[in-house]
Design brief:
Blueprint (H helix, E strand, L loop, with lengths): L2 E6 L5 H13 L4 E2 L11 H10 L1 E8 L1 H4 L2 H14 L2 E6 L9 H4 L5 E2 L5 H105 L11 H11 L1 H23 L8 H11 L35 H10 L12 E6 L4 E3 L7 H6 L3 E9 L5 E8 L2 H13 L1 E2 L2 E3 L2 E13 L3 H5 L7
Parallel strand pairs: 1-2, 1-3, 3-4, 4-5, 6-12
Antiparallel strand pairs: 7-10, 8-9, 8-12, 11-12
Helix pairs in contact: 2-4
Length: 447
């Protein structure tokens, strides 16, 4: 409940407090003071704090008794520091603040030390009404300001909402325009596709019509075949045979030329003086009953550098001279017969069956000795497609180790027999071909 005034006094000044309360209430102002307004059984301090919070003006009966009262001091502290109630000191004696100096030093008081008290009470009532009126005015102004601020906030929020709505509508329009444009583009592409399909069908039909017309014209222009009768058959043969003598002479000249060229090629073939045992070993591998055995000599030679597939090195593009081949053939030891371990199948030449055919490294010693030529390696492939053993069976001695190392790094797809994986034995061939610059310029390292 709101009160107009709260009277703070010392209990020794209760008579003055009663007179103040009676005068205020007679003038229509509500008043709260203890112990009159403290309810029975209520907490004293809580009741006082609640009354201060609900009062507009606090009237202090200022005397020597209240100046030294601790209860009055606590009430003033709560009113000024915590709640902010307007304080009117009603000085009934001529005194200066001592213990209340901290709170009353800057507050103008109402002097009531001169009797009679009734005249001073009239002044107090007028002062209370003035304070209440000023509070109402301030409250009204504050209310108006708050209402104006609320209206401004509402207008600003409305403007923001309008901008957001406008932006959303603009984005929706842009999206709709983009959708319409995309649909139109899609329709245009579909129409172009249909037109292209119609044009293709028209051209196909035109081509077929032209083909039919060409066949018809050829059929009409083709002479009818007439079989010679028995009476004219002999004369026909006698007329045809003399005309065939000149083409037969051409065929004979071509056959003789091919024979002569074959003889010249055999005479100057670089490997014609190769080791007979090596040729026999290659021939035996070539004649093995595998689908890829015929690719022993037709497959490309293994490159001696580390370039990737599809980029042949210069070393793989030139063949050795006849003198080089003869020297290699003379230095190659006799091949050892290949044996097939028990539980394996023979695969012949396996170069084309490798999933990865490693490239051998040209040994430095072989470069210095100018060793080259074909090296054959007998390999055993396990059930997983890895080379478990490799042994060179022909070729230059300085090249065998490099060929064996390359064979061990190669991999194959697992072979199967009767649905189960098996081991495979066969031959890998490596052709070591140095560049021509090695023979012409001395010791030149291969890339």
């Amino acid at each position: 409940m709101t009160h107009d005034t709260f009277i703070s006094y010392s209990k020794k000044d209760k008579a003055i407090a009663d007179a103040i309360c009676k005068a205020l209430e007679d003038d229509g102002l509500s008043c709260w003071y203890a112990p009159r307004n403290v309810e029975v059984g209520a907490d004293w301090d809580a009741s006082i704090m609640e009354a201060l919070a609900n009062s507009r003006v606090m009237i202090l009966v200022w005397s020597l008794n209240s100046d030294s009262s601790k209860q009055v001091k606590r009430e003033i502290a709560i009113a000024l520091d915590d709640i902010g109630v307007t304080l009117i000191p009603f000085r009934t004696e001529i005194i200066e603040p001592s213990k209340l100096r901290f709170y009353l030093g800057n507050i103008q008081w109402l002097d009531a030390s001169n009797p009679p008290l009734e005249n001073n009470l009239r002044l107090l009532i007028d002062e209370v009404r003035t304070v209440i009126a000023r509070q109402e005015t301030m409250k009204t102004a504050r209310t108006v300001a708050e209402e104006r601020a609320a209206e401004e906030r509402a207008a600003e929020e409305g403007a923001v909402e309008d901008r957001r709505r406008d932006e959303a509508e603009a984005q929706a329009r842009v999206a709709e325009a983009a959708r319409i444009k995309a649909a139109a583009e899609k329709q245009r592409l579909e129409q172009e596709k249909q037109a292209a399909e119609k044009e293709r069908l028209r051209r196909e039909e035109q081509r077929r019509a032209n083909e039919r017309e060409r066949q018809r014209v050829e059929a009409e222009a083709r002479p009818e075949a007439k079989a010679p009768d028995e009476e004219t058959h002999g004369a026909f043969d006698s007329q045809v045979l003399p005309n065939q003598r000149f083409p037969l002479a051409k065929v004979a000249v071509a056959v003789v030329s091919i024979i002569l060229l074959g003889g010249l090629a055999y005479a100057f073939w670089p490997n014609k003086q190769a080791d007979p045992d090596q040729r026999a070993q290659v021939a035996s591998a070539h004649d093995s009953p595998t689908p890829d055995a015929a690719t022993l000599f037709s497959s490309p030679a293994v490159s001696t550098n580390s370039q990737p597939p599809g980029k042949p090195s210069p070393a793989a593009t030139k063949a050795p001279t006849p003198q080089m081949a003869n020297a290699n053939a003379a230095s190659a030891p006799a091949p050892t017969p290949a044996t097939t371990p028990q539980g394996t199948i023979s695969g012949g030449v396996l170069n084309t069956k490798a999933t990865y055919l490693a490239q051998p490294v040209y040994p430095e010693a072989a470069k210095k000795e100018r060793a080259s030529g074909l090296v054959m390696v007998q390999v055993l492939i396990d059930e997983n497609g890895y080379v478990s053993s490799a042994q060179a069976i022909s070729g230059h001695a300085l090249l065998r180790h490099a060929a064996e190392r390359a064979a061990l790094r190669s991999t194959f797809s697992p072979a199967k027999s009767a649905g189960e994986r098996v081991k495979v034995t066969g031959v890998l061939t490596f052709n070591f071909r140095p560049p021509w610059s090695l023979w012409n310029k001395g010791d030149v390292e291969l890339n």
